[in-house]
């Protein structure tokens, strides 16, 4: 005689707690077999989500701190500290661009040129024009007028920059460098041609007029001026000769005190006339 086999639903579950509700036996059986693996997966998922939101919160807090530090910085030294701390943040490129501008404003043209060069090609969208013009200005500050004029002119000739807010600055820079390189008349001619295309009585026209006036008044130093300036620097650097001792001045004889006038003689009181005796 064959033995009857229990169906899976009728098979007893091992280690079933005493008094366990029969309707929960399938759930208990699932938990014993797969519950722990599901619990581990849930914990991992929770850790991932927590890490994501934690990193997001940290990045926002760091960006806020970077923005605050950037607003408080004004000098190149202060901006160097901000870039060192937050240069890798989302606003790092803007910080470096501002630092390069601060170098230029403080006359540190080589530092400005070096930083602008590092930013070229990797600047965020919207900052490309500022980097290109910054390079040209730095070259002008270094008195490399031909290279600077070429950089300004290249920017101005690019059709992609036809609506750039720095287009006029590039054209003015090219004319300014031409004048400083020695071609003052050519620079004035370029500026007058640019003025003809400009809207009358506008700020742009005023900027062009100011540069034309500056070019007309600007005169390069002659060789004689340079020689005189060099001689003045040598004279200033030479040690000053010790002054000769002054001759002793003979002691002056004290002035005699003028004799005091004799006091005026006391006035003699007027004599009273003798009274006439009565007759």
Secondary structure elements and pairings:
Layout: H1 25-72, H2 76-86, H3 92-105, H4 109-119, H5 128-141, H6 145-157, H7 167-180, H8 184-196, H9 203-217, H10 223-237
Number of helices: 10
User: How do the SSEs run, as a string of H and E?
Assistant: HHHHHHHHHH
Q: Biggest β-sheet, characterized?
A: none
Strand elements, count: 0
User: Which spans of ≥5 residues are poorly predicted at pLDDT below 50?
Assistant: 6-10, 240-244, 255-279
Quaternary structure of the protein: single chain
Mean pLDDT: 76
Backbone shape: elongated
Helical content stands at 55-70%
Computed CA radius of gyration, to the nearest angstrom:
48 Å
Strand content: under 5%
Spatial gap, N to C terminus: 209 Å
Pairing-aware structural class of the strands and helices? Answer: mainly alpha
What would you say this structure looks like, in words?
- With 279 residues, the chain is mostly helical.
- It contains ten helices and no strands.
- Helix 2 (76-86) runs antiparallel to helix 3, helix 5 runs parallel beside helix 7 and helix 7 (167-180) runs antiparallel to helix 8 (184-196).
- Mean pLDDT is 76; it is low at 6-10, 240-244 and 255-279.
